[in-house]
Structure to design on (338 residues):
């Protein structure tokens, strides 16, 4: 469907989609005077000086990282694809397969290497096995979440799939997949789905870019999925902010929360985009979710910390500050039955 974006004074939304009722005032997704999206709480600082500082500074964990032999465990078992049971399966990084109310979804499916960055853990299933997918959800335009090769294969093998994403990311998906079955939402807007399934696009603290000059021209976010009496929260890529506590206000009974804990060092640079394990645990507590599924670690080497660091630090933080909910320390490919 063709998407038209309606705009007020520095706020935008998709007029074809409904904005959900909220317990606080909400004018729409904010944009700056150039029409580029901005975080609703913390402006993204696109600083070459800070980037240069990171690239030229000494990594205090350089030797530790070089000696690190830890690898993310992976269950290479595609049984869940042949089952009819509702489940959540982490495919590595921020990629998930979900079946709920008998409806199958993929979130941020990255099935191969990303540009020059090689996978450090295998995909649990052969990419060609991902068929009969009803919905493909793309949180934002970064290439480790919106991968051209992966989407091309999925489009070929799932010609009837419907794509759900953020404002203006639909143009990227359409170019890759040639699909017209794409819905692009602003923050807190609900997609058009059957009555048995509700999916809402929600804010994160992040940014967007695929090329050199298109910073923040496309929106970033996460998803809340509700069906079969369950609520699943996918936190997307995000730094820490009040939007996690807002989730608890809007959705008072989250069953599963997928929240990132990796690609976080050095924190002075990464903190506005990604959560540290400590902040990931804090975000989980803010959402008041029953179960945490840690993600965004162990698959791609994107930052200064060793691959083993995020999950090790998360376990140490949990010992110091026990979580009210359960943390599910799962392997890639492991099935969580809903």
């Amino acid at each position: 469907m063709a998407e038209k974006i309606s705009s007020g004074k520095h706020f935008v939304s998709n007029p074809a989609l409904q904005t959900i009722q909220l317990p606080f005032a909400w004018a729409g997704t904010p944009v700056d005077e150039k029409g580029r999206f901005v975080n609703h709480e913390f402006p993204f600082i696109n600083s070459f000086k800070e980037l240069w500082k990171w690239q030229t500074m000494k990594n205090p964990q350089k030797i530790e990282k070089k000696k690190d032999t830890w690898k993310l465990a992976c269950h290479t078992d595609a049984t869940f694809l042949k089952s009819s049971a509702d489940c959540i399966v982490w495919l590595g990084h921020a990629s998930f397969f979900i079946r709920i109310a008998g409806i199958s979804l993929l979130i941020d499916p990255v099935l191969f290497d990303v540009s020059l960055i090689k996978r450090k853990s295998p995909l649990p299933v052969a990419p060609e096995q991902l068929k009969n997918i009803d919905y493909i959800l793309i949180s934002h335009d970064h290439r480790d979440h919106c991968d051209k090769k992966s989407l091309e294969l999925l489009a070929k093998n799932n010609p009837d799939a419907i794509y759900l994403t953020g404002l203006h990311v639909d143009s990227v998906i359409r170019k890759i997949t040639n699909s017209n079955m794409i819905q692009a939402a602003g923050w807190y807007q609900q997609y058009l789905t059957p009555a048995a399934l509700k999916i809402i696009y929600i804010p994160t603290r992040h940014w967007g870019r695929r090329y050199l000059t298109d910073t923040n021209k496309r929106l970033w976010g996460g998803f809340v999925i509700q069906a079969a009496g369950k609520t699943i929260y996918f936190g997307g890529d995000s730094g820490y902010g009040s939007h996690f506590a807002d989730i608890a206000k809007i959705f008072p009974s989250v069953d599963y929360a997928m929240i990132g804990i990796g690609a976080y060092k050095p924190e002075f640079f990464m903190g506005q985009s990604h959560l540290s394990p400590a902040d990931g645990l804090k975000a989980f507590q803010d959402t008041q979710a029953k179960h945490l599924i840690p993600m965004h670690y162990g698959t791609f080497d994107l930052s200064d910390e060793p691959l083993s660091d995020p999950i090790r630090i998360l376990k140490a933080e949990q010992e110091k500050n026990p979580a009210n909910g359960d943390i599910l320390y799962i392997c890639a490919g492991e099935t969580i039955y809903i």
Q: What stands out?
A: The chain is about 20% helix and 20% strand. The longest helix spans residues 309-320.
